[in-house]
Amino acid sequence: MNAYLLAGEEPVLISTGMRCHFEDTWTAIAQVLDPSTLRHIVVLHFESDECGALNEFLARAPRATALASMRTVMASLSDFAVRPVRGLGDGEVIVAGVHSLRVVEAPYVHAWDGIMLVEEQAQIVFSGDLFLQPGHAEPVIQNDRSSLSVQLYRTFYGTPPEVPLQRALDRVGASSPVLLAPGHGSVLGGNLVPYYRAYRQSVNALAALRPLTEATRERRSADDAPPRAPSLSREPS
Ligand SMILES: [Fe+2]
Ligand SMILES: [Fe+2]
C-alpha cells in the first residue's frame, strides 16, 4: 500500500494508509520532515488503506486539513473525520506551496467516489487503485507490467464500467504524465502507453464478447420457454 508525501512549505500527504500502520507511516514521514507540519491530507476514496489513519494524523498534525471528493465527504468522511473536511470539485486545483494538484474525478473507476490527482509541475498522476500492481518491486520501474496490472485490477475489483474508465484514461493521457503513481505497487515511468492500451482493451474485449453473450441469452430463453400445449383442434388437412 502506497502513501505519497509531497515535501515543501505546505506538505501534502496523499493517502494515509491503514490505521494499524499509522506509527510506521508517521516514522517514515519523519525521515523527510516533521509530520506534525503536514498541511493537506488528500483522501482519494473512502477505504481503510486510503484514510484508515486519518484521525491519527489529524490528532498529531494540528494544521492539517483533510480533502476528498464531494461524494467521499458527503457519504462518509464528514462523519468519520474528527475535524471538518473540505470537498473538492472536478478540475479544482489544490495549491500547496510549490505543488499544484489538479483534481480529476473518476467515479466508478474502482471506487464510486474516487478521484485522481495530477501534480502539474512534475507531471505525476496519483491514480488511486488504477494501474496498481502486485508485490514488492522497486519504488519506480520502467518495464512494462501493464498486463499484470490489468489482471490484478480485474481479479480484485472486477471489470470497470466502460464509459467511466475510458473517460478517466482520456483525462490521464491528456495530462501527459511522466509518472503514474498508483495506490499499490511501483510508480510507473518510461513508456506509459501500454498501460492505457491494456486497460482500454480490457473493456473492449468484453464489448466484443457482448453480442455472443446476448445471442446465448436469447437461445437460452428460447430453450427455457414452456412447451407449447398441443392443439385440441384438428389441423386442417
Ligand atoms: Fe481502493
Ligand atoms: Fe487501494
Class by SSE composition: alpha/beta
Query: What is the total tally of β strands?
Result: 12
How many domains? The number is 1
How far apart lie the N and C ends?
77 Å
Protein model, in words:
This protein has one domain (4-219): Metallo-beta-lactamase, Chain A (4-Layer Sandwich), CATH 3.60.15. Helix content is 37%, strand content 19%. It is built from seven helices and twelve strands. The strands form three sheets. Strands 1-2-3-4-5 form a five-stranded mixed beta sheet, covered by helices on one side. Strands 6-7-8-9-11 form a five-stranded mixed beta sheet. The longest helix is centred in the last third of the chain and has 32 residues, at 193-224. The termini are far apart. The relative contact order is 0.11. Residues 230-237 have low confidence and may be disordered.
Output the keywords.
237 residues, alpha/beta, Metallo-beta-lactamase, Chain A, five-stranded mixed beta sheet, 37% helix, globular, binds fe (ii) ion
Question: Layout of helices and strands, plus pairs?
Answer:
Elements: E1 4-6, E2 12-14, H1 22-30, E3 40-42, H2 48-51, H3 54-60, E4 65-69, H4 70-80, E5 86-88, E6 93-96, E7 99-105, E8 115-119, E9 124-128, E10 140-141, H5 146-157, H6 162-174, E11 179-182, E12 187-188, H7 193-224
Parallel strand pairs: 2-3, 3-4, 4-5, 9-11, 10-12
Antiparallel strand pairs: 1-2, 6-7, 7-8, 8-9
Helix pairs in contact: 5-7, 6-7
The chain binds fe (ii) ion (2 copies).
